[in-house]
Design a protein that fits this description.
Helix content: 25-40%
Strand content: under 5%
Low-confidence stretches: none
CATH class of one domain: Mainly Alpha
Number of strands: 0
Distance between the termini: 64 Å
Number of helices: 5
Order of helices and strands: HHHHH
Structural class: mainly alpha
CATH superfamily of one domain: lambda repressor-like DNA-binding domains
CATH topology of one domain: 434 Repressor (Amino-terminal Domain)
Mean pLDDT: 77
Largest sheet: none
Shape: globular
């Protein structure tokens, strides 16, 4: 490779991610450090940092804990799904009200519950 050719750095995940300013603002309003919040929620400071930097999204379990802890909606915490990505809809039940494949929904031929 020619030493005169300078490599342009590739964008890292941190550069591509959109920071969650609302979550950080909510934490700072309560005067909590990332470590304090992590201790209250039962996670790590690194995880809180990743949420705030937009590298990770909290699981449903932690979204519920964050909503309860801050007393704010998920949208107010910057954790609501984007409008262009609606929540998945459940499939409509069969006309008889039972799932397909028997009482447990199993469709495997070897299943005794079929």
């Amino acid at each position: 490779m020619d030493p005169a050719v300078k490599k342009t750095p590739t964008k890292t995940a941190a550069a591509k991610a959109a920071p969650n300013r609302l979550l950080r603002q909510a934490r700072e309003e309560k005067c909590f450090s990332q470590e304090d919040l992590a201790e209250r929620l039962g996670t790590t400071q690194v995880t809180i940092s990743r949420w705030e930097r937009g590298l990770m999204t909290p699981s449903l379990y932690y979204r519920r804990k964050l909503r309860a802890f801050f007393g704010k909606s998920l949208a107010a915490l910057g954790l609501a799904p984007p409008a262009d990505r609606p929540l998945r809809q459940r499939a409509a039940p069969a006309s008889n009200g039972r799932p397909p494949g028997g009482p447990t929904g199993c469709q495997q031929p070897h299943c005794p519950f079929r």
